[in-house]
């Protein structure tokens, strides 16, 4: 019989946070805001492929979670800036590490996907991704 995990369980709490910060748009927004406050239009221009609606939803969710703050300057027209909160800044360092890892290993992951897809198209898989020497990547 399976054990039911309730909302108060640490796994559920972790999943809730990862659902928020683990989606591709939140990671990209937080990475950009790690460089300092940005206006909405700056964020939209910098994030290729994000719709206005998705950027708005992402910023609202990050603000709701206390990771981003929205500041409206009393000018005409009003100037709206988005910045990381102190807690958001602590997460931004982790996000930067994830992005660095993705950039460093992009070619390896792409090659692995290609090998997998080719072997899946020709029949049953045999063993999976080739192993590399310890401490090496395909780009080393």
Write the layout of secondary structure elements.
Blueprint: H1 10-21, H2 24-33, E1 38-39, H3 40-46, H4 52-64, E2 68-73, E3 79-84, H5 86-122
Antiparallel strand pairs: 1-3, 2-3
Helix pairs in contact: 2-5
Q: Which features characterize this protein?
A:
140 residues, mainly alpha, Arc Repressor Mutant, subunit A, three-stranded antiparallel beta sheet, 5 helices, 3 strands, 56% helix
Structure explained in plain terms:
Residues 118-140 are annotated as: Disordered. The chain is mainly alpha-helical and 140 residues long. Helix content is 56%, strand content 10%. Strand 2 and strand 3 form a beta hairpin. The radius of gyration is 20 Å and the shape is globular. The model has no long low-confidence stretch (mean pLDDT 84).
Distance between the termini: 47 Å
State the CATH topology. Answer: Arc Repressor Mutant, subunit A
Could you say which overall geometry the principal axes of the C-alpha atoms support?
globular
**Total number of helices:** 5
**Over all CA atoms, what is the radius of gyration?**
20 Å
What would CATH call the architecture?
Orthogonal Bundle
Helix content: 55-70%
**Overall pLDDT metric:** 84
Structural class category: mainly alpha
Number of strands: 3
CATH class: Mainly Alpha
Low-confidence blocks of residues: none
Numbering strands along the chain, what is their spatial order in the largest sheet?
Answer: 1-3-2
Q: What is the domain total for the residues? A: 1
Instruction: Kindly estimate the percentage of residues that lie in beta strands according to DSSP.
Output: 5-15%
């Amino acid at each position: 019989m399976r054990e039911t995990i309730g909302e108060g369980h640490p796994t559920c709490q972790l999943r809730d946070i990862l659902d928020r910060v683990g989606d591709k748009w939140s990671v990209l927004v937080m990475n950009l805001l790690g460089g300092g406050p940005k206006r909405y239009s700056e964020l939209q221009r910098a994030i290729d492929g994000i719709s206005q609606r998705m950027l708005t939803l992402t910023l609202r969710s990050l603000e709701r979670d206390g990771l981003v703050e929205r500041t409206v300057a009393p000018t005409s027209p009003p100037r709206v800036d988005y910045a990381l909160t102190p807690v958001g800044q602590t997460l931004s360092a982790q996000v930067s590490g994830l992005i660095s890892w993705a950039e460093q290993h992009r070619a390896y992951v792409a090659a692995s996907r290609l090998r997998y897809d080719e072997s899946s198209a020709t029949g049953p898989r045999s063993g999976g991704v080739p192993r590399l020497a310890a401490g090496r990547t395909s780009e080393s």
